[in-house]
Amino acid sequence: MANKKTHCIRGHDFSKTAYYYTNPKTGKTRRFCRKCRNIVKKKQGRLHLTPAMREFRWRKIKIRDKGTCRYCGEVTENGQLDHVEPHSNGGADDVTNMVWSCPTCNQTKSSELGMMMENGIIYWHGEEVAPGMLYGPPLMDKIKQQRFDRQKEQGLHIADYKERTGRY
Known about the structure:
Elements: E1 19-22, E2 29-32, H1 34-43, H2 51-64, E3 80-83, E4 98-101, H3 103-109, E5 115-118, E6 121-124, E7 127-128, H4 137-153, H5 158-165
Antiparallel strand pairs: 1-2, 3-4, 5-6, 6-7
């Protein structure tokens, strides 16, 4: 049996925690220590904020949006920051792409495509998201329907799964 490596390629100790990164171009997976992981992330262009900077950004967006969810209008103290265009799909990691959101709307929207923000106005497939327009439960229903349709196209429909496996 081969011995497990105790140091990364730059000579740093792995300690108890090792991080794994898969290069999307080559498909190779590498193991990194905490220091090297941060180097790899910086090369990928992701912002690295200190906790104080993260708190400042959180407060700035909460004040800008007046503590009101931008998707349903609910005033909430325990809101969350949401990337309008999902970060996982290439959305910017700055305040021009972030809004205050209640936990329910943030989880419902998840990383669904179709949202964009231009000059502080949110659009869902070209429709403005605002009171009197597409807003609240009708918006969330459209997002859920899009997710349902996408999953059905991919063969991930839950009813089909229940029929195939007999699990409920």
